[in-house]
Each structure stands twice: as structure tokens, then as C-alpha cells.
Write a structure and sequence with these properties.
Layout lengths: L2 E9 L2 E9 L3 E6 L3 E4 L4 E6 L2 E6 L2 E6 L2 H12 L5 H5 L7 E4 L5 H7 L3 E2 L7 E5 L3 H11 L7 E7 L8 H10 L2 E8 L4 E8 L1
Length: about 200
């Protein structure tokens, strides 16, 4: 989500200036108050005039964001995040073709009911790779699919990954692919969608 605002904040009967940060799964306060609230634990979410109000961790919280920003933050918090299947564009109507082996539980769940073994029926292709050789094999396998099919390259993330993001991008560019979207898959894996130039 990545929203932030400098605002007057009230927790219970105390007030202070704070920076509020709205992240994907938590709301952080820094400055006059230091708090970390999981979005799933917020209750009583509402807008009262200029304030976004809620209860969390036994505290009553009000953030003076302004009426319009408060309504926008409320909507963002109340809207459930997209599932991994939605992020990857997978559904029964838009199945994915798996190149290679997949054993990541989150990915297997996303593919449930949205997977095909027939290249002609695939809306998109997915490959989990952890080495340059696996990436090159995925590129070669993808070459046999119809031109309109995108390819999600799913690989380890982090500075100690066996296949870095920079290496993936370099090899995909060399094979005439361009990236168009990224998505987290799990704590250990990231995904980037590629299409042919």
C-alpha cells in the first residue's frame, strides 16, 4: 500500500504529532507515538469528521488525516488484499501452464483449479527457477508457446539468493523479454512477469 501522512494522533486521552504509515498488512505510527498495529486486528474502523478512528491492542486511536484521506485510508484497509492467484492472473477461466517443478505451498494453492497441462489452453506460463540453467530451460520451453502468453519467472529473493533478480533480468533481456509486473509469492520467493518484445 505504501501510504503515509504526518498527522495529529490521539491514543486514548493523549495526543501527539506522528507519522502514520499504511503498509500491506500493518499500520505504523512513528514520532510522538510509536505503535505497530496489524490491519487484521483493527476493529471499529470508521471516519468521524476529519479522523480515521479504530480500536486495536486495547487502545482507542484517532488519526486526523482530513476527511477525504481518512475515507481513502478506510477503504484501503477494509479492502482485502488480492490473492496470489489474482496477482498472477490465474483462474479457472485463465489457467496457467507450469514449466518445471513447483513445490511452494502458496503457489500450489494459487494454481488449484487454475492449471492446465495443455499449452494451447494456457493463459499464462509459470516457472520456478533457482539457477541460470533452470532459467534458460524455462525460456526454451516458453518459446514453444503462442506469442501472447506471458511468462512468470519465480525465483528466490534476497541478497543471498542462488539466482539474483539482476541475473534474471539480464538473461531475460538477452532473450528479448521485457518485464511488466512483479509480485511477492512467499517469504522466500518473488515473481516477475515477462513478455516477448
Amino acid at each position: 500500500m505504501g501510504r503515509e501522512a504526518q498527522c495529529r494522533c490521539r491514543i486514548g486521552d493523549q495526543g501527539a504529532e506522528a507519522k502514520a504509515l499504511l503498509e500491506a498488512d500493518e499500520l505504523l505510527l512513528r514520532g510522538g507515538f510509536k505503535r505497530r498495529y496489524a490491519l487484521a486486528e483493527l476493529s471499529g474502523l470508521r471516519v468521524e469528521g476529519e479522523r480515521l478512528c479504530f480500536e486495536a491492542a486495547g487502545e482507542r486511536v484517532a488519526l486526523e488525516l482530513g476527511a477525504k484521506p481518512a475515507a481513502s485510508w478506510l477503504k484501503k484497509i477494509a479492502t482485502p488484499p488480492p490473492t496470489l492467484a489474482e496477482k498472477l492472473g490465474l483462474s479457472a477461466a485463465h489457467p496457467g501452464l507450469v514449466i518445471g517443478d513447483i513445490d511452494e505451498p502458496a503457489l500450489l494453492e494459487a494454481l488449484q483449479g487454475a492449471r492446465t497441462e495443455l499449452p494451447a489452453q494456457a493463459h499464462i506460463a509459470l516457472a520456478v527457477v533457482s539457477s541460470e540453467a533452470q532459467l534458460q530451460a524455462a525460456i526454451a520451453a516458453h518459446a514453444g508457446l503462442p506469442d501472447a502468453r506471458h511468462l512468470w519467472i519465480i525465483h528466490p529473493k534476497g541478497p543471498k539468493a542462488s539466482l539474483t533478480d539482476a541475473t534474471v533480468r539480464r538473461l531475460m533481456a538477452a532473450a528479448s523479454y521485457v518485464d511488466s509486473k512483479t509480485s511477492a509469492v512467499s517469504a522466500a520467493l518473488t515473481a516477475t512477469r515477462y513478455g516477448r518484445r
